[in-house]
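Supplementary notes for students who missed Thursday's class. We covered one full example, reproduced here. Read the sequence, then the structure, then the short commentary at the end.
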Amino acid sequence: MAAEPAPLRIGLSAVLLEDQTAFVHAWQHYLQNRLKRPVSFVQRANYREIVTLLQNGKLDSAWLCSYPYITNTKDLRLLAVPVYKGEPVYQSYLIVPAADRKTSSIADLKGKLFAFSDPDSNSGYLVPLYQLSLLKQQPNSFFGKAFFTWSHSKVVEAVASELAHGGAVDGYIWDSLVLLRPELTAQTRIVWKSQDFGFPPFVVRKGLAKADADALRSALLAMQNEEEGRKLLALLNLDGFVPGNDKMFDSVAYMVRKLGD
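Structure (token representation):
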């Protein structure tokens, strides 16, 4: 009798997917049925932990932000990119408390309290860092205080409660919270939206067997064509997945280079 194949281990970060236990179980069940093998979702608090597990061979795949993907392409391969509102892109939003009607850009937040999501987040850290660099500023001297919340939804909570005077958040998460927690987003105001960036991708470690990577990609791409898959995508507020390519993340790579100069 053939031994059961080892579980395919997929990493998820609380930065993107927080408090979604029931959904994760449903997605696990769906993928196991499609892949005909065990699947285990491994949840961690931040992107850095996820990348380390991928590099150490303790994860096979992960839903990752574009920033840590771009900076670790020697260890990771692109698998698939989610499609949101018809395109595989998203934006960074600068938000302030709804009562603040004066702030119009990050420049107006000098000396204030600011919330970042994760130091490896594109929308929640790299983008505002780059915007500050255009003003020839650094966060530790520009803001009165800056802190990490370790999830995009907690950035929104911090700004809504006025624990922070401003924050940088994944626009897809903010938009999704409008549907899930409208009373929360109503307490915030979007001041600025970035250009489009390639959506946070699914990646695999470079050592993963091609057959395993191909099977997982096929299962993700097929979700939009099946009723059960479409129901799961709707819970994620996504349309589906596309194979994607590294050029989708060129603008992220550009900011990384400019900040490194």
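Commentary. The mean pLDDT is 95. The domain at 92-194 is CATH 3.40.190.10 (D-Maltodextrin-Binding Protein; domain 2). If anything here is unclear, bring it to office hours.
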